[in-house]
UniProtKB/TrEMBL annotation:
Domain 3-hydroxyisobutyrate dehydrogenase-like NAD-binding stretches: 156-281
Any Pfam family matching the protein: NAD_binding_11
InterPro entries: 3-OH-isobutyrate_DH-rel_CS, 6-PGluconate_DH-like_C_sf, 6PGD_dom2, 6PGDH_NADP-bd, HIBADH, HIBADH-like_NADP-bd, HIBADH-related, NAD(P)-bd_dom_sf
Listed name of the protein: 3-hydroxyisobutyrate dehydrogenase
Organism superkingdom: Bacteria
Keywords: Branched-chain amino acid catabolism, NAD, Oxidoreductase
PANTHER family for this protein: 3-HYDROXYISOBUTYRATE DEHYDROGENASE, MITOCHONDRIAL, 3-HYDROXYISOBUTYRATE DEHYDROGENASE-RELATED
Protein's organism: Donghicola mangrovi
MF terms in GO: 3-hydroxyisobutyrate dehydrogenase activity
């Protein structure tokens, strides 16, 4: 396939590389002038898109996605697919899909889980919204860039699945960190805490696979000075998207709302920006009930 890849950042560059290594003809464009070995550079997003069967976008947010969509949609050949893998708000995902469909194109929203490591290893999980036909056309590309692609329903449902998943993640990470900080103050050894909780009803991905306490459990960013990993800033972005969606859908999400407030304060006023999202543990450890 001929693929245009727009947004060659931390995630986009390794994803595009994997597609090129698998034999696809990949043309790339990034506003910051990034070039990647094996990817033919284009002068603009529209130039990259004009001969593509599939245009993949991996961009920072919904506003930028809408801007790039305005540039690429008029340039794309009839029947081509616009495949957005960024994490954006559900409303932007649905608006861009409508715009693509009205122009005679296919459209998929396919945000990912798995981070930079998963992008490099080709083991991402894709959560996909759009038609069955478009999903089936893109499936071979998902199989190269990832290990699993779940078709979640019509346009926007991929983003809906992503923000619901990450709202659970933010809430369980906070719960795990505050419980570790409480356990410390109660004199419970962290290894004992891990051994009990990871095999009891308090278990979750946050403790079992990504333990926020250094030196116990699996290797995680806690063992690397809380260098991300998954940055607290990105968790805040995803929690904001979940609360924006909850407001727009009139859903009551008090735990998600509190998680957003805690990450906002951590990132914006407590020095958490640039740290892994599991650095909530030292944050709680350094505080009193007050
Ligand atoms: P990044 O900032 O490293 O990459 C984004 C790239 O988009 C940058 O290189 C930037 O120059 C480029 N860009 C910005 N505006 C552009 C435009 N108008 N035209 C072309 N290129 C433009 O971000 P990232 O970490 O690669 O994340 C990309 C997306 O993936 C985000 O939506 C993020 O939420 C999501 N995501 C990231 C991770 C992660 O661990 N990094 C995990 C899952 C999902």
């Amino acid at each position: 396939m001929k693929i245009a890849f727009i947004g060659l950042g931390n995630m986009g560059a390794p994803m595009a590389t994997n597609l090129a290594k698998a034999g696809h003809e990949v043309t790339g464009y990034d506003a910051a002038g990034v070039t990647v070995d094996g990817i033919t550079p284009a002068q603009s997003a529209a130039e990259a898109a004009q001969t593509a069967d599939v245009v993949i976008t991996m961009l920072p947010n919904g506003a930028i996605l809408r801007k790039v969509a305005d540039e690429v949609i008029p340039a794309m050949p009839a029947g081509a697919i616009l495949l957005d893998c960024s994490t954006v708000d559900v409303d932007s995902a649905r608006a861009v899909a409508d715009q693509a469909l009205a122009a005679g194109l296919g459209a998929l929203d396919a945000p990912v889980s798995g981070g930079i490591g998963g992008a490099a290893a080709g083991t991402l999980t894709f959560m996909v919204g759009g038609t069955e036909d478009a999903f089936n056309t893109a499936k071979p590309l998902f199989d190269i860039m990832g290990q699993k692609a779940v078709h979640c329903g019509p346009s926007g449902n991929g983003q809906a699945a992503k923000i619901c998943n990450n709202m659970i993640l933010g809430v369980t990470m906070i719960a795990t960190c505050e419980a570790f900080a409480l356990a410390d103050k109660l004199g419970l050894d962290r290894q004992a805490m891990f051994d009990v909780v990871s095999t009891s009803s308090g278990a979750s991905w946050s403790i079992n696979a990504y333990c926020p306490a250094p030196g116990v459990g699996p290797q995680s960013p806690a063992d690397n000075g809380y260098k991300p990993g998954f940055a607290a800033d990105l968790m805040l972005k995803d929690l904001r998207l979940s609360q924006q969606a909850a407001a727009s859908a009139d859903a009551d999400t008090p735990m998600g709302q509190l998680a957003e407030a805690l990450y906002q304060s951590f990132v914006e006023t407590e020095g958490g920006s640039g740290q892994d999202f599991s650095a909530m543990l030292p944050r709680f450890s350094g505080r009193s009930r007050g």
